[in-house]
Sequence to fold (91 residues):
Amino acid sequence: MAVDGYYLNHRQEMLEFVPDSAKRIIDIGCAAGEFIRNLGNIYGREVWGVEPDKRAAKSAMKYAYKILNMDADRALQKLPNRYFDLSLIHI
Fold:
């Protein structure tokens, strides 16, 4: 089954708020990875994602350095401390 429209939001309007200095980014609630694709492919950054929906996480794996298919609380326990320059949270 394909990922539906909700998980395919590109969030283009948010790109201007990502500082150039952010090279390692964690995107919590990354859905199918469309925003990750914009960050990683356009700017050459190392972008990780956290997504609890299995289908969306599988899709996001195409674009991210690493995807954690779990809820945010569990993921925060597994992520490296002080590794990321920027944390994005989609709620």
User: Anything to note?
Assistant: Helices lie at 34-43, 54-60, 72-78.
